[in-house]
Every structure is written in C-alpha cells, then in structure tokens.
Amino acid sequence: MALVTVAELARAAAEGGYAVGAFNLNNMEILQAVIAAAEEERSPVILQASQGGLKYAGIDYIVAMARVAAESASVPVALNLDHGTSFAQAMQCIRQGFSAVMVDGSKLPFEENIALVKRVADVAHAVGVSVEAELGKIGGTEDDIIVAEREATMTDPQEAAEFVKRAQPDLLAVAIGTAHGVYRGEPRLDFERLTSIKNKVDIPLVLHGASGVPDEAIRKACQIGISKINIDTELRVAFSGAVRKTLKDNPGEIDPRKIIGPAREAMQQVVREKMRLFGCSGKA
Ligand code: G3H
Ligand code: ZN
C-alpha cells in the first residue's frame, strides 16, 4: 500500500493504548531489517530520516526505498522527516513524497517555534502530510543537533497546551528526561510531568531518545500516553556490534553481503523486541 501518515498510526495507537515504533533509516539494510521485523510482528511502522540520514543516503534514495518498502509490505508504513529544522527542508520532503514531517523548533524561542510549526502545518495539512513538533529540549546528540545537558529543559505542561492550540501540530515530542545517544547513567523519566502534559494536550505524544531506556519505564510511558517512540542508537549498536564480530571471526572476509548481512539480522531482532515492548505487535 501507499505510505500512510504518522498521525494516522499514532492516533490508532493512542486509542489502543500502545506506541508505534519509529526507526531511523540510513541505508537499505536498515530499511530491510525494520520492514522484515514489522511483517513478522504484524506491526504498523514508521521509517524516519534525520538531516544526517538525508545527507548520507540522499533524499531521492530515502524516498524511493521507503516507497518500495511501503508498496510491497503487508503492514502500514509511514515516512517521516526526523528533527527537520527549517520550513524549506520540510517543503522539500513533502514535495519528494514524505508522508510526515517533524519540524523541530525546540531551540527557538517559544513564539518562533509556534510560528515555524504553524507555517509548516498549514501547507502540510493542505496536502495530507502530518506534522510533529517538539517543545522543551531533549538532551544529547542527534546527528548535527547537539543540546548540552545543562541546557536541556523539560516540557512545561501549560506551555504545551498553548503551543498545540496555536501551532496545530498532529503530534508533540516531549522532553521528560530522555536524551539522544548512549546514556551514561540510568535515565529517569518524569512520569508526573508526562501525565500532566497528557491531561492538557489532546494530540498523540512522542518519546525521543528511547534507546537505553529500561523496559519498565517504556511500558509506563505507553500506559500514560506516549503513542510514538523513536529508536536510533540501539540500531547503531546492533549494526556495529555485528559487523565487528563478523570481522573479528573472519578477518579475511571481503564480501559486503557476508559482513553486513549478519548486521541486518541483528537489527531485525532489536526492532522485533521493541515492537513487542511498545505493544504495536499484532496491531497491523
Ligand atoms: O529522533 C530520533 C530519536 O529520538 C532516537 O533516539 O538515538 O536515543 O534512540 P536514540
Ligand atoms: Zn529525536
């Protein structure tokens, strides 16, 4: 089937009390791992490309790969721009065929974040593309986006309500204690804050920086009302770990298929486990 919007998948998840997994796409093996896992788990799935992913693979390749995957898959697939930061880039992605865009104005002052998201949402909604926004700053590093921990601030529930009303995104990414990349200590999520945001905001909420968050915390976040969960770092760890092992076990190996093939299988297992954890398995 054709690509579906992230909003469509996230609204169903919000009603069903589970979260849909969103996985970062940088090459064909990652795509195949994610789609194979989704088919095996009978799960809807979100593919997403960050600015770094688009730079690495090229926007045409990302869209073409995602389209082929969606058309041949028997489960619903969405393609989202992850952490887009400009109006122009969101427009480019919409024009190229993305079914959803995230416009991350979290580094901007409140009013400027609202203005940017509203501007993108007005166009995106006119052509059937959904929009994710972010309020508060999620710590860590996501490709080119770096937020120093001390600068990271959590989402204010009252501001979130005003933000959603005025900017009109379809989904809101919240800062409740997660961070992008590998955690140094155990992440502590602010569930009270999440509950309060959920009570004030009536659109699906998104959890970024979910790699390395303990399973119990993820379950609780889903119960309270997280409907989309982003995973990137754990795919990187699975990929690089498998490649390292293959080359260590077979130092003379030169066939890319034999080097990257096991990495694809390792990522597929990670995605399957996440889908079970998020509760989206069996929901397609
Ligand atoms: O936008 C992507 C994610 O928030 C990924 O976070 O790298 O910690 O899994 P992660
Ligand atoms: Zn993120």
Produce the secondary structure layout:
Elements: H1 6-16, E1 20-24, H2 28-41, E2 45-50, H3 51-57, H4 59-72, E3 77-84, H5 87-96, E4 100-103, H6 110-126, E5 130-135, E6 139-142, E7 145-147, H7 157-167, E8 171-174, E9 179-180, H8 191-200, E10 205-207, H9 215-224, E11 226-231, H10 233-249, H11 256-278
Parallel strand pairs: 1-2, 1-11, 2-3, 3-4, 4-5, 5-8, 6-9, 8-10, 10-11
Antiparallel strand pairs: 6-7
The structure holds glyceraldehyde-3-phosphate and zinc ion.
Zinc ion (ZN) binds at residues 83, 142, 180, 208-209, 230.
What can you tell me about this protein's structure?
There is one protein chain. By secondary structure, this protein is of the alpha/beta class. The protein is globular and about 60 Å long. The strands form two sheets. It has an eight-stranded parallel barrel with strand order 1-2-3-4-5-8-10-11, surrounded by ten helices. It has a three-stranded mixed sheet with strand order 7-6-9, with no helix packed on it. α3 (51-57) crosses α4 (59-72), α5 packs parallel to α6 and α7 packs parallel to α8 (191-200). It has eleven helices and eleven strands. The protein has one domain (6-278): TIM Barrel, CATH 3.20.20. The chain has helices at residues 6-16, 28-41, 51-57, 59-72, 87-96, 110-126, 157-167, 191-200, 215-224, 233-249, 256-278, and strands at residues 20-24, 45-50, 77-84, 100-103, 130-135, 139-142, 145-147, 171-174, 179-180, 205-207, 226-231. β6 and β7 (145-147) form a beta hairpin. Glyceraldehyde-3-phosphate (G3H) binds next to β3, β11 and α10.
